[in-house]
Amino acid sequence: MSQVTNLNQFRKQKARAEKRAQGDANAAKFGRTKAERDLEAARKDKARRDLDGHKRET
C-alpha cells in the first residue's frame, strides 16, 4: 500500500514556500542593511544641522 497524502497540507506547504521565495526576492531587491539605514540617517541629520547652522537670525 502507498502512503496517504493530505492534499490540503501539500497545497499549503507549497503556498508557504512560494511566499517565502517571493519575500526573499523582495528583500534582496529592496532591502538595506541596518548599517546602510544608520549611515543614511546620520547623513540626513548632519545635513539638517549644517543647514540650520547657516540660517540667518533676524
Total E-strand runs: 0
Give the rounded overall mean pLDDT.
91
Structural class: mainly alpha
Cα distance, first to last residue? Answer: 91 Å
- Largest sheet data: none
How many domains comprise the coordinates?
Answer: 1
What gyration radius follows from the Cα positions, in whole Å?
Answer: 25 Å
Tally of individual helices: 2
Q: Estimate what percentage of residues fall within beta strands.
A: under 5%
Tell me the helix content.
over 70%
Overall form: rod-shaped
Pfam families: DUF4169 (PF13770)
Region (Disordered): 1-58
Organism: Seohaeicola zhoushanensis
Biased composition (Basic and acidic residues): 33-58
Could you describe the 3D structure shown?
With 58 residues, the protein is mainly alpha-helical. It has one domain (7-53). Helices cover 76% and strands 0% of the residues. The protein has two helices and no strands. The longest helix is centred in the N-terminal third of the chain and has 24 residues, at 7-30. InterPro entries: DUF4169. Residues 1-58 are annotated as: Disordered. Residues 1-10 have a biased composition (Polar residues).
